[in-house]
Specification:
mainly alpha, single chain, 106 residues
Length: 106
């Protein structure tokens, strides 16, 4: 069950990367790293290839960070199992990257 769960967590983490690859030609020339609009003070423009790499790095980082976040949050709320909490955190972080990709489409 552990390997199957890890595969599910990894799949959720990499979904935004796979989506970004699927819509690569629709991504603007200089994607922004700011999720909600283009705030010049807090965003950085990068190339398309760098943007794809950023989504991959975020997916991998979120895969490894989600168990840590789940462990710390489990101390606050013990009603949710650790696996469900990790799944929710993983999905929330992947959703943020998904919104980042959507915000940079033509």
């Amino acid at each position: 069950i552990l390997k199957q769960s890890n595969f599910i967590y990894l799949s959720i983490s990499l979904l935004p990367f796979l989506f970004a690859l699927a819509v690569y030609n629709r991504i603007i020339e200089s994607p922004s790293t700011h999720i909600f609009g283009s705030n010049p003070g807090s965003s950085m423009e990068i190339s398309r290839q760098g943007f794809i790499l950023l989504t991959l790095v975020c997916g991998i980082a979120f895969y490894f960070l989600s168990p840590l976040f789940a462990k710390y949050l489990s101390y606050i709320t013990s009603r949710i199992s650790l696996n469900h909490l990790r799944l929710l955190i993983n999905a929330a972080l992947a959703l943020l990257v998904f919104f980042l990709v959507l915000g940079n489409l033509k």
